[in-house]
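Listing S7. Sequence submitted for prediction.
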Amino acid sequence: MYVISLFLSHYVNWCNTVSETTPRWKINLAGLLFFAVAVALISFAPEEISLPVVFLGGAPVSLFFELDRRLRWKRAREMRAATSQLRKTRSLLKGFKR
Protein backbone atom coordinates (compact mmCIF):
# COMPACT_ATOMS: atom_id res chain seq x y z
CA MET A 1 0.00 0.00 0.00
CA TYR A 2 2.89 2.33 0.78
CA VAL A 3 4.38 1.76 -2.67
CA ILE A 4 1.07 2.61 -4.36
CA SER A 5 0.69 5.83 -2.37
CA LEU A 6 4.32 6.75 -3.08
CA PHE A 7 3.82 6.16 -6.81
CA LEU A 8 0.57 8.13 -6.79
CA SER A 9 2.13 11.08 -4.96
CA HIS A 10 5.01 11.22 -7.46
CA TYR A 11 2.53 11.00 -10.32
CA VAL A 12 0.43 13.84 -8.88
CA ASN A 13 3.53 16.02 -8.46
CA TRP A 14 4.58 15.25 -12.02
CA CYS A 15 1.07 16.09 -13.32
CA ASN A 16 1.07 19.43 -11.50
CA THR A 17 4.50 20.30 -12.89
CA VAL A 18 3.56 19.35 -16.44
CA SER A 19 0.24 21.21 -16.23
CA GLU A 20 1.98 24.41 -15.16
CA THR A 21 4.61 24.33 -17.89
CA THR A 22 2.82 22.78 -20.89
CA PRO A 23 0.69 24.87 -23.26
CA ARG A 24 -3.06 24.18 -23.28
CA TRP A 25 -3.12 22.87 -26.84
CA LYS A 26 -0.61 20.13 -26.07
CA ILE A 27 -2.62 18.92 -23.09
CA ASN A 28 -5.81 18.90 -25.14
CA LEU A 29 -4.03 17.09 -27.97
CA ALA A 30 -2.81 14.39 -25.57
CA GLY A 31 -6.36 13.83 -24.34
CA LEU A 32 -7.72 13.68 -27.86
CA LEU A 33 -5.04 11.18 -28.90
CA PHE A 34 -5.80 8.93 -25.92
CA PHE A 35 -9.50 9.07 -26.74
CA ALA A 36 -8.80 8.16 -30.39
CA VAL A 37 -6.55 5.25 -29.37
CA ALA A 38 -9.16 4.03 -26.89
CA VAL A 39 -11.90 4.10 -29.53
CA ALA A 40 -9.64 2.30 -32.00
CA LEU A 41 -8.74 -0.36 -29.43
CA ILE A 42 -12.36 -0.93 -28.47
CA SER A 43 -13.39 -1.12 -32.12
CA PHE A 44 -10.61 -3.24 -33.61
CA ALA A 45 -8.78 -5.15 -30.86
CA PRO A 46 -10.10 -8.19 -29.00
CA GLU A 47 -11.78 -7.52 -25.66
CA GLU A 48 -9.06 -9.33 -23.71
CA ILE A 49 -6.56 -6.75 -24.91
CA SER A 50 -8.57 -3.56 -25.35
CA LEU A 51 -10.53 -3.34 -22.10
CA PRO A 52 -7.59 -3.70 -19.69
CA VAL A 53 -5.52 -1.25 -21.73
CA VAL A 54 -8.34 1.30 -21.85
CA PHE A 55 -9.19 1.01 -18.15
CA LEU A 56 -5.61 0.86 -16.87
CA GLY A 57 -4.57 3.69 -19.18
CA GLY A 58 -7.73 5.72 -18.63
CA ALA A 59 -7.29 6.04 -14.87
CA PRO A 60 -3.99 7.98 -15.02
CA VAL A 61 -5.18 10.07 -17.96
CA SER A 62 -8.41 11.03 -16.20
CA LEU A 63 -6.48 11.87 -13.01
CA PHE A 64 -4.14 14.07 -15.04
CA PHE A 65 -7.03 15.96 -16.62
CA GLU A 66 -8.75 16.41 -13.25
CA LEU A 67 -5.56 17.84 -11.74
CA ASP A 68 -5.13 20.10 -14.77
CA ARG A 69 -8.73 21.32 -14.42
CA ARG A 70 -8.15 22.14 -10.75
CA LEU A 71 -4.95 24.01 -11.58
CA ARG A 72 -6.67 26.05 -14.31
CA TRP A 73 -9.55 26.88 -11.95
CA LYS A 74 -7.09 27.95 -9.22
CA ARG A 75 -5.13 30.08 -11.71
CA ALA A 76 -8.34 31.76 -12.94
CA ARG A 77 -9.44 32.44 -9.35
CA GLU A 78 -6.08 34.04 -8.56
CA MET A 79 -6.29 36.15 -11.72
CA ARG A 80 -9.80 37.35 -10.81
CA ALA A 81 -8.62 38.25 -7.31
CA ALA A 82 -5.62 40.15 -8.68
CA THR A 83 -7.82 42.01 -11.18
CA SER A 84 -10.31 42.89 -8.48
CA GLN A 85 -7.54 44.19 -6.23
CA LEU A 86 -6.10 46.24 -9.10
CA ARG A 87 -9.49 47.84 -9.73
CA LYS A 88 -9.83 48.72 -6.05
CA THR A 89 -6.35 50.23 -5.97
CA ARG A 90 -6.98 52.26 -9.11
CA SER A 91 -10.25 53.63 -7.72
CA LEU A 92 -8.53 54.58 -4.47
CA LEU A 93 -5.72 56.33 -6.35
CA LYS A 94 -8.20 58.07 -8.60
CA GLY A 95 -10.05 59.42 -5.57
CA PHE A 96 -6.79 60.50 -3.93
CA LYS A 97 -5.72 62.63 -6.94
CA ARG A 98 -8.84 64.77 -6.76
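Caption to Listing S7: primary sequence and predicted C-alpha coordinates for the chain studied. The chain has a mean pLDDT of 87. The radius of gyration is 21 Å.
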